[in-house]
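Appendix B. Chain record.
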Amino acid sequence: MRTAIFKNIFLAAMSVFLVGMACTVGAIYSYFASQQTIALETEARSLAAAINSCGPDFLDSLGGDVDGVRVTWIGTDGTVLFDTEGLDGLSSHADREEVREALETGSGSASRYSDTLGQRTTNYALRLEDGTVLRVSASLYTLGTLVLNLFTPILAAVVLAMLLSFLLAARLSRQITQPLGAIDLQNPDDREVYEELRPLVRRISGQNRQIQQKVEELKVEHARQDTMRREFTANVSHELKTPLTSISGCAELIQNGLVKPEDVPRFAGTIYTEAQRLIVLVNDIIRLSRLEDQDVRQEWERIDLLALCRDTCDWLAPAAASRHVTLEVRGEALYIRGVRKVADEILGNLCDNAVKYNKPGGTVTVTVFRRQDKVAVEVRDTGIGIPQEDLDRVFERFYRVDKSHSKELGGTGLGLSIVKHGAAFLGAELEIESREGEGTAIRVLFPPEQA
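Structure tokens predicted for this chain:
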């Protein structure tokens, strides 16, 4: 951490210095360029005054450069009449920016690369009284040339800045990290640090409390899960052992010839019935495991909930008729987005329970409706109902309110647990209402289709 802080402070200091140096050099360059333009303007006006007084012959007396300044006299048509560099190879200057500007307004200036001099120049042109143009030019240092000329002082400044930045970064990083290293992370005390670190220390203290609370909650949850796992294992073992014992006993009697020929079909029927119980139980356990694993490979689609309820009731119609229970579907055609197989298992288990635990002549009403921003389906029966003390546990695996009645009806005790995990898989919520002896209503609240 100290190395990172040192590095960041050092790089920040050097970046500020380099940016400042670049701005300074740019400002110097811009100042020199503007001063050169002013000097050329002064020189041009002095020469123009001399030419207006003495005539064009004054130019012949100039000879070569005038203090490093190139002087050019240009006619009204752009023809070069005089140049301190000589007239050889000079074309018309009518297209020069500063010349055009001088002919139009009286004066003009421009900066560009000169093919004649082979370097960048600053040019200032002034229109004379006879309409001709006098132009003075001087070489302009490029920014690179200026930096090269100032290389020694710039290098010295960079070295000094690096040294100062190194010392500053080392000192600041040490001052920052020493109080941080002294913080007791287990029992932080904001009285032992400087003001800027107190929010951090308070936050660490708060996070320690949250972590400790979370650890305690996880311990409780782990204990609960461990208890549920042991109960589940015991229940599965018991549920499997009962039919397997029956199957094994019947098979052993048949194998040993202890069953009369006329009783073999009855024993075979017992074996078949118990095997079917095993198949149903195993299938329920597999469904429950898949829902708990949140199997993402399932295909999500748009589901007509009302149509699905009708299909479920059509499937259960024979079982309902045998128990003299009436099935009824109500509501409006509403859609959800989900996995059809999971939604079908939720409705199938709810309606199947409503039929099994109903009274002869009772009814099961399935209603699809909208509640605020959710799509709801309610399965209401007129059956035996559930005691209030059992409502919180009916969705647990293998939990039965009336164990004797459940065994008689062939239930596995996993139906409502599958409903609970299926609803969680689809992001739905469950509500249950029941009165013992009057019936039960279970509602599934699905999220809106766009979700």
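Further analysis of this model is presented in Appendix C.
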